Records
---
Amino acid sequence: MTDYGLLTSILHAILVASTPLVFAGLGALIQERAGVLNLGIEGLMIVGALAGFAAAIAGQPLGISVMAAALAGALLASVFAFLVLKCLSNPVATGLALTLFGLGLAALAGAQYVGRAAPQIAVWEIPLLSDIPVIGPALFSHDPLVYLSILVAVCLWWFLSFTRGGLVLRAVGENHDSAHALGFSVQGVRFLAIITGGALAGIGGAYLTLVQTPLFVEGMTAGRGWIALALVVFASWRPFRVIAGAYLFGSVTILQLHSQALGLAIPAQWLSMLPYIVTILALVLISARGQGHRAPGSLGQLFRASR
Amino acid sequence: MTGFRLKALGLSALLVLTACSDSEQAATEATDAPDGQVKAGFIYVGPVSDGGWTYEHDQGRLAVEAEFGDQVTTTFVESVSEGPDAERVLSQMANDGADIIFTTSFGFMNPTIKVAEQFPDVKFEHATGFKRADNVATYSSRFYEGRHILGLIAGEMTESNVVGYIASFPIPEVVRGINAAYLAAKSVNPEIEFKIIWVSSWFDPGKEADAAKALIDQGADILMQHTDSPAAMQIAEQRGIYAFGQASDMAAFGPTAQLTSIIDDWSPYYIERVGAVIDGTWESGDVWGGFNTGMVALAPYGDAVPEAVRSMADEARAAISEGRLHPFTGPINKQDGSPWLAAGETADDGTLLGMDFYVEGIQGTLPSAN
Amino acid sequence: MMQFQTRAETHWFHEWLAVILALVLTAATAAGFLALLGFEPQSALHRILIRPLASTYGVSELIAKATPLITIGVALSLSFRAGVWNIGAEGQLVFGGLTGGAMALALYGVDGFWVLPVVLLAGAVGGLLWGAIPAFLKIRFQANEILVSLMLTYVAILLMSVMVHGPLRDPDGFNFPESRLLHDAAILPKLFDQGRGHIGFVFALIFAGIGTWVVKRWHLGYAMKVSGLSPKAAHFAGYSRDTTIWLSLLIGGALSGFAGVVEVTGNIGQLVPTISPSYGFTAIIVAFLARLHPLAVIPAGLLVALSYLAGEAAQLSLGIPAAMTQVFQGLLLFFLLGTTVLVNYRILWVRAV
């Protein structure tokens, strides 16, 4: 990892910085396509971050750690599912409460892990591709989770676009009354979407504690859950655009750090604003050209079988 | 809809009523500490488990408990925002019968002064500030003395002659640290170059890691940081370069990477001041302690530090501790070339306390420069 | 099997029942937990919940804490009713605090009854302008307001950082990132002789009253609501969606900015890098706890404010970590939100076939 050119290093760092956002963004996306607005992504991420880290500290291999994170995210998400689907509580407030609860829970349970380092994750070099000059080492010499994030996006796209299950999920998200009238289980579909989304957000959190910085401290998600939620909007609820949005955000973040190290004469706080401003501008451009798409029709609305 | 209104008014009334009905009782309620026992309160800006700034203050609190045993009780409130919440927490602590209260972040300065006016019998100790009163003392550490040693080691050990520096916010303390380290490094290695990244955060491990990578990718082979997480240390370890820890010993995160680490050791000061309250000899004052007071300490040198560098660092440390060496000794120019200190002149504490300029030779713009 | 049946009309009795049930559930969980930790639950709960309020001082501080939550909560309940998702009240608060604080600093040393109103107005206008950005971008370019308002929050916080590290820094403050203390003419009058409860709270109550009136009596409130429920129907009825968006975000921005300048002139007394511990986000919870009813925002705001005070008391007198407070706040909210099911629905137990 030492002899790459600067460009290669920057590309590599962008992918690493963006991957948690990809996972969490996809996790939010699948819920929103089913009509569920879950503002608890931040809470789900930090709980996943802790669970994955705890498993790694206990000596579990990467696969098990990731599954632990997914399980933790799914478990916490099921609390949200119970409240929103069963108790019909307001999803926006419940999501925010979930964030509070998750952050508190992870801080309490994670206190014992502070000050410990997890083992480093081995890199998977993809044969042949990783030998391409410049972009090879930047794109094809990563930890397995980077590839997994792309794979999840592809699977999600395929699922939503080409499978019957995806069609049902979209129907539930667009108009839950019609979907119900057609005999689909609105609550069942949404439950599955919430659980899956929770698992993905958990993995996104675990990427922080397993790869990006193999340590755990409370509050270390530092607002990434919120960025992920914003990226779903940016992406007009489409999987590949989530990747594009996450990489755009990651790129600006990394580039502003590099420009500082190069001694650019712009005060740091102005540079720190760039990722947010660029994202807004990009959204405006996309929306103005009519390439944005509206939100799923039933997003954020409660469903109750009318009988 | 009338239900809403009823509920709204009723619940508001209920809250206020319970509050008022109890008010007399509270006034007469005894404090928790038994007679003769001193109660020391601490308010922290971060969580005790941050592994850095707040963690070290809490270690100081525990040292007070260990030192005085039954003579003291301690309480603390963690994660107190520096905005509007500090004043309330301070008053509650004073109301609760605290005899001495340590407010451990710069942002608590004005709330400390305000609350101290209302509680003239309670002693207050504010860290890193400059406002004092009869019952408000200030204390801080001369971390720049530690930074001087870090600079010396970095200057000697770098091969690329590029040191990466991860900074938080452009407050005088951080600027002072950068200048002290740079001057020391330059004194042993004229070729030295500092690359500085401001991450605009005290604590965001992910961002600190990204900054560390960016610095390494731009040629740095030694990292320094003035942010609180050990993320940069981990990156240094992964990439096979060296780094210095911050606030506490970070060797667990970089067993081969850590050259040494500045350790904030508040125990000597806290023990002394709480002891003074017990003895009844407490007075307001201003302590800015360095190596000589034990408030600035260094972690054991890493294996990579050669013997010659160790002895040079130890010698410099002893010289600073004994007052023979001042890290800011002229001739020193400011970044724009204007003279700051003449040959042999040392910086006064006032200038150091408010330092808002880079010294000559550092590249880049200080974010706070007007 | 459980089945839900919509109640034809919500009844005040059920509203109370739900709230009391949630409070009892939280208290019971907390008591059980305290017992587990070895505390005597009753006296421990008394210490955490009653003692912080058991003085004029405590009430005054509760009011000070609840003021921004109520002020913003009222604005958000109107906005969310209209289906305009202003998630960035925090940014509008910070920007309003910045513009209002800058005005106060510009007028430093000037005496006069008009200084404070001008400062408050500057804060409200600042927040309004910050809220106008997502409104403009949504109407002109169809850019989603959730993203724009949220991203602008981070920008506002960094802007505040730039200003207090640079131009607005206290000239005698050793270059620390704080402004000088505001002149007395720009400080909000207090309500009591103890604590920081200030007339900002009275404003908050007035806003809640106006909000209620808007929702119930004013044609506009109805238009906003219809527009939120069904944009198409609103269109046919001749209501303009654009007007709704403008109004929602401008009201949200102005009130959030007002809350910001009130924090600066009432509670803090100077500009500092962090003027809000996430009031703008917490107010979203407050708005929904009140089920978007402006008057119910008052008790909801007081309750949430109390939960913060209780958390500090728990740390102070029982040594319970801050994280535990967050967990209990989460639980309290879960219970409050979960039990509303009793209000809106009749629950029938049906034997599965």
---
Amino acid sequence: MYQYDQYDQAMVDARVEEFRDQVARRMAGEITEDQFKPLRLKNGLYLQLHAYMLRVAIPYGTLNGRQMRMLGDIADKYDRGYGHFTTRQNIQYNWIKLEDAPQILADLATVEMHAIQTSGNCIRNISSDHFAGAAADEVVDPRPYAELLRQWSSFHPEFDYLPRKFKIAVIASDTDRAAMRLHDIGIQIVKNDAGEIGARFYVGGGMGRTPMIAPVIREFVPVLQMVSYAEACLRVYNRYGRRDNKYKARIKILVHEIGADEYRRQVEEEFAHILTLGLEPPAEELARIQGFFGNPGLVDGLAEGYDRSDPDFAVWVDQNTTPHKQPGYKAVVISLKPAGGIPGDATADQIRLMADLAEAYSLDELRVTHTQNIVLPHVKQSDLYALWQKLDEAGLAAANLDLIGDIIACPGLDYCSLANARSIPLAQKISARFAEPERQRDLGELKLKISGCINACGHHHAGNIGILGVDRKGTENYQLLLGGSEAADTSLAQIVGPGFSEDGIVDAIETVTEVYRAQRTEGERFLDTYRRIGMAPFKEAIYG
Amino acid sequence: MVDHCLRYRDDEPVGDPAVTVDAFAEHGNATAVRIEPGDDARMLLPQLGRIALIEINFPAYGDGRGYSAARILREHGYTGELRAVGDVLIDQLSHMRRCGFDAFAPDKPITQEAADKALATWPEVYQKTVDGRSPIWALRHGR
């Protein structure tokens, strides 16, 4: 894992002091809320319906036990004893006091963490594959490239007042576990025929009210030009992205309006100029960063296999673990989606327990997934049973990864000032309706995603089943979408028909699952069946 | 010149009023020009040598096009005064300086003391820009 040197630490410490000063000026009335807003947003502090919300960055979703423990301690000390893991691999605290915020940032800085650029119209925290470093199918570990971009994008002086927020994801395998093409820039690290490493740039994807899948802007950028190419992509956007309408300001609209070819032409022209400026960190810097991402302590020669005699354990291990590139290991997903629970929420005690388990069983590493779960990436197969027992005792052993209970949901109208409808109670109702584990397993892979408004923080466009909360004449109403996917076969979900009440949508989902069960052929996932038979049979069953 | 201009250069301030980019293109003898957010700074590149002052206007602090305009001008060798005018706030000075601005004429005056403090916020910088500071990656590798 990456470790700060004195420079990184000095930058984060400087940020803490700057923000302490800004909060003091705000509390003394020296600056107005209007002037303060962009400053607090640059530090992840939102003013929500009931309190301030602080979003803490977890760069590329990777953290160690000490950092995780601090997240638990912050939940106890400054919030109400829990935290909420988000779809951008970050954590949010929903009950923060303004006067505490600088001290929280100071506490985070002691464990090499921060809330820099987790909101505002700037380059946000960079996300990545949650199995990076463990996945058998990766070309290289994508995280060193993400770290290089993290440093480049931190306090970037030219790109702090972009037309709109800007999200970057970096992956390095053909299997996309990070919804890469639904980002403003998606980078896939690839190897060319000559065996050289480079970056494939996808630009102009996104969700929100106008979902778009990013086109390829360049197939291969040599790795030692990646930062310069990103700089060119951003500069074209900063100059020509729309600023007349907040809802048309994301880069996807620019790329869509001028076309990928024209955008590419402008980027290439800017790139040729930028290459002459010598802005690119040298190979030694990439090598230095890569040095932190070597073998974390995996040992050779371990046997494959483990005792599966406990049936509950066998169910969990089949559902929630994934093959590891190193023989004798597995990557384990801890589901934060217990039956009837709030997706992504964890108590302070659970967070600290996961920190302990990471230290004991996963070479001191954890990951946050964009599906709001936690990964222990490097677990010896011989430790799986002991690990499962401890998770089970703490209510963290829900065996529902990628099943209908593994719901993504935004905070919704319970917290968020943008929301039109509540997401959390609906997620809980759906989770309760399908609580029976056998029923979930029978339905198989089924990704259900809920957004409480058109901004799509709950990724409803990418749900096999997507739900969008809207406001209809003052009452909450839910639209049903089918057929989305965020994986390598990215597709956008389509609206089925008129919306439903909260109870009505739960019934409609049940109907959808019954249609699938009746129509599926051997081995077909829900998404496969939908793609084969189309919308009509589902629509017919729901609306008759 | 405006009364409350903070300058980080030693030469005499330019007294001429700045003209618009269009007027500058039409009347070839102006030495001061003012860029609005929608203007293309690259239009000025052929004439950079005879310009002594470029003002970049920020009608609203949240419109960041002026940062790119400033860097483009400096990257192409402009050495005259580059002045940020308009809704220029204390918390933006440091990034503006990094993008090549060396004078500030904010709508709401900023004291010299406050500006100097703001400009000293960052002990080091991550990016190489046009301000001559060595980025952290260069310091790490003795470049």
